[in-house]
Design a protein that fits this description.
The complex is a heterodimer of chains A (333) and B (169). Chain A is mainly alpha-helical and 333 residues long. Chain A contains eleven helices and two strands; from the N terminus they run αααββαααααααα. Chain A has one domain. The chains are: A mainly alpha (333), B mainly alpha (169).
Chain lengths: 333, 169
């Protein structure tokens, strides 16, 4: 009994530690990868001074952010201003808790599932956490007491609420096909073929909505630098700005993982172990998002709302009806 | 007293305190923040009562949807009072809510981790899975569900009519 308790305790801590470390390192090196790739796309070289090929650049950036002064505007709502970046970063990291990153391990006769927690409402937990992430941005912008921050916050709230709807609706066909909200079951349902082959429309809607949720270029109205300086995090500096930044890139990693889980078969793949496949898929999704950023200009505000409400949401609804009809026909015959 | 009982009383206390704070705050944005905390506490109570689906929906719809819209409207229309007024009092008052809430969550997480590190403990016997819940809602109670959705549709059409911009000709 006691040994089992100790085993479980150690395992939990190890799993949490490894996941957190991988997530933070992944986010840090994604920043570097993005800067390098964007530079190549714009025929520049990119960061290449810190370490070989600029590989130590994330560490240099971290030291820079930690040693910068942490400014709080005089008129700001101090408590909310302090905690808003933490909300943004924490919700982003918590989503990874339900993502399965491999089949179970067998260690000394004990079966260890390779997921931190397998909730039976896992998918809803993901949506819930991503909708709570809005508070970090909204409250951070409001608490700064600056018009640029406030405008950025209002824009991002409007955008995130609109695209959350199509994000959630694009996942309904996946739930219908897997018959479960649990991410482990959804991955298990894709052992034969990944869902992208049967749900390409869902995949496209999810991908576009995900890009809008993390406010990346073409959807970066909330941080449009030529009108709003930096949007909701204009007044932030030092580590608090770093937390917003980290939250954004952690979300990019988790969204890559979620896309892999929902559409690309999760950790399934030939020859290589599951974790490697998941990392490859996350990197591929992240590369696509960086590519889009290097290619497209920013949307106008009305185009952004039109795309969300008048195109993606109705398309997702029609997709749900068609999926339901096909599933019904398949079960009847 | 089991762990589940303990969690219930702690979250119930959090819900009561947060709601009381929400209705007594001068600053509307602070009230919204406390109300969100109260919804999270309610979600925890739903979860330990064996309704994970309701818990998730509580967070998605109330905390993540409706309260965000509240915040949106407040940010759009309200001429902000100076937030400094609320915080000119003694230092401890600033930190107390955050410290209490962080402490309570830390204790709850600690109790859970120490009592059940292998995640083997399952919430009570009566656990409504999402499938069963959905079946019950749309087979046994389909009529009330339809009526409620009709009500929402009426509100939606009303909002659309009010928000419709009349052509200036």
């Amino acid at each position: 009994m006691l040994t089992q308790w100790i085993m479980g305790f150690i395992l939990l801590i190890v799993k949490l530690g490894v996941c957190l470390l991988a997530l933070l390192l992944g986010a840090a090196y994604l920043v570097l990868a993005e800067r390098k790739l964007l530079a190549r796309m714009q025929i520049r070289i990119g960061p290449n001074r810190a370490g070989p090929f600029g590989l130590l650049q994330p560490i240099a950036d971290l030291i820079k952010m930690m040693t910068k002064e942490d400014l709080i505007p005089r008129e700001a709502d101090r408590v909310i201003f302090r905690y808003a970046p933490a909300v943004a970063a924490a919700t982003a990291m918590l989503i990874f808790a339900v993502v399965p990153f491999g089949d179970h391990l067998v260690l000394w006769g004990n079966r260890i599932p390779l997921v931190i927690t397998d909730l039976n409402v896992g998918l809803l937990a993901v949506l819930g956490l991503s909708s709570l992430g809005v508070y970090g941005v909204a409250l951070g912008g409001w608490a700064s007491h600056s018009k640029y921050s406030l405008l950025g916050a209002i824009r991002s709230v409007a955008q995130m609420i609109s695209y959350e709807l199509s994000l959630g609706l694009s996942l309904v066909p996946i739930v219908m096909m897997a018959g479960s909200f649990s991410l482990v079951d959804i991955v298990a349902a894709q052992t034969k073929y990944p869902f992208i082959f049967v749900q390409p429309i869902s995949f496209i809607i999810f991908f576009i909505s995900a890009m809008a949720e993390i406010k990346r270029i073409p959807f970066d109205m909330p941080e449009a630098e030529n009108e709003l300086i930096a949007g909701y995090h204009t007044e932030y500096s030092g580590l608090r700005f770093g937390l917003f930044f980290l939250g954004e890139y952690v979300t990019l990693v988790t969204l890559g993982a979620l896309t892999a889980v929902f559409f690309l078969g999760g950790w399934h793949g030939p020859f290589l172990p599951g974790v490697i496949w998941l990392i490859i898929k996350i990197a591929a999704i992240a590369f696509c998002m960086i590519w889009v950023r290097g290619t497209l200009p920013r949307f106008r505000s009305d185009q952004l709302m039109d795309l969300g409400w008048k195109f993606l949401t109705p398309l997702a609804l029609i997709n749900i009806v068609i999926t339901g009809a096909v599933l019904l026909i398949l079960t009847v015959t | 007293m089991t762990i589940l009982n303990l969690i219930f009383y702690v979250s119930a206390a959090v819900v009561l305190c947060a709601t009381a704070l929400a209705i007594t705050r001068q600053n509307v944005v602070h009230a919204v923040c406390y109300l969100v905390i109260s919804f999270m506490g309610t979600a925890v109570i739903f979860y330990i009562l064996g309704a994970p689906l309701l818990a998730a929906l509580e967070v998605i719809i109330y905390a993540g949807g409706i309260m965000v819209l509240f915040l949106f409207v407040i940010m759009m229309i309200k001429d902000q009072q100076s937030p400094m007024d609320d915080f000119s009092s003694i230092r401890i008052k600033k930190w107390l809510p955050a410290v209490i809430l962080a402490g309570v969550s830390a204790i709850m997480a600690g109790v859970l981790v120490f009592a059940d590190p292998g995640n083997r403990l399952r919430p009570p016997a009566v656990m409504g899975t999402p499938q069963e819940f959905g079946r019950m809602l749309f087979q046994d109670y389909w009529f009330p569900v339809e009526i409620a959705s009709l009500l929402l549709l009426a509100a939606l059409i009303g909002a659309l009519y009010l928000g419709h911009r009349k052509d200036i000709s």
